[in-house]
């Protein structure tokens, strides 16, 4: 009977801890747009472990090349995950910006890559 009470208490504590999480998604990667085979990596940024969130990532191509594909990948699985909001521009234009939200500080790294037309 004592074991059952401990299990129920532990389950309630775990449920309440998850309910207090600021992140509502367990996503580990995001993809925006489509990547034609001839597109090249034109921008890359890594938010390293320990980075404070929210963090903004934006890029404007100096050669006015369109950004058609963006990826954001965590380097390992986390039950907390992260979410992404588009803040500026859009896919198919030379400029785009995103805000990454999640636990702070990050307990994993996130790599953002943007691919532009040749």
UniProtKB/TrEMBL annotation:
<keyword id="KW-0732">Signal</keyword>
<feature type="signal peptide">
    <location>
        <begin position="1"/>
        <end position="19"/>
    </location>
</feature>
<protein>
    <submittedName>
        <fullName>Uncharacterized protein</fullName>
    </submittedName>
</protein>
